[in-house]
Amino acid sequence: MDLDKHKAISLLNKIMELELAGVVRYTHYSLMVYGYSRIPVVEWLKTQAEEGLLHAHKAGEMVTLLGGYPSLSIGPLLETHLHDLGDILRESLANESEALAAYYQLLELTQGKSVLLEDYARSLIVQEEMHADDVNKMLRRTGKTGVYEPPKQH
Ligand SMILES: [Fe+2]
C-alpha cells in the first residue's frame, strides 16, 4: 500500500508546531533561571531552543517535500508559572514526550513505504530519546541511579 501523504503531511505539521512551541518555551525558560547554576543551565536551555528550531525546520522541509503547506501555527503553550528548575525540567519532559509520540506515529505510518521518511522519523526518535535521557538524569538525585518516573497525570 502506498504512503498516505495526507496523513504524513498533517503529522509532520503537528511535529513542526510542537517543535516551534518548544523553541518559545525553552527561550522563555532560559530567561527565568536564577541562582548558582544559572550560567550553564541558561546555556543548555538556549541550546534546546536552537535544536527545536532545527527540528521544526526539518519537519517543514518534509512537509514541502511531500508537496504540503507548512503550518504557520504553533503548538499549545501552557504557562504553569513554576520556574523552579525541577518544575521546568518536568514540564519540558512532558512536552517532549508529546513530540516523541508524534515521531513514533510518523514512523508507524511510513514504515516500509518511504525509506526517507522512515529514516527521518527514526533519527529524530533517537535524538529525542537521548534528549529525554539528559533531562531524566537531571531529575534524579545524586547517588541514585533509578530512572526518574514522572508523576501520573489524572
Ligand atoms: Fe525536537
CATH topology, which one? Ferritin
Tally of individual helices: 4
As an assembly, this protein is single chain
Number of E-state strands = 0
The level of helicity is 55-70%
β content, as a range? under 5%
Second-tier CATH architecture: Up-down Bundle
Sequence stretches where pLDDT stays below 50 over 5 or more residues: none
Bound molecules: fe (ii) ion
Biggest beta-sheet profile: none
State the CATH superfamily name: Ferritin, core subunit, four-helix bundle
Q: Which whole number gives the mean pLDDT?
A: 91
Shape category:
globular
Q: What string, H for helix and E for strand, traces the elements in order? A: HHHH
How much is the radius of gyration in Å?
Answer: 17 Å
Distance between the termini: 39 Å
Q: Could you say which structural class the secondary elements and strand pairing correspond to?
A: mainly alpha
GO molecular function: ferric iron binding; ferroxidase activity; heme binding
Keywords: Iron, Iron storage
Organism: Nitrosovibrio tenuis
Domain Ferritin-like diiron: 2-146
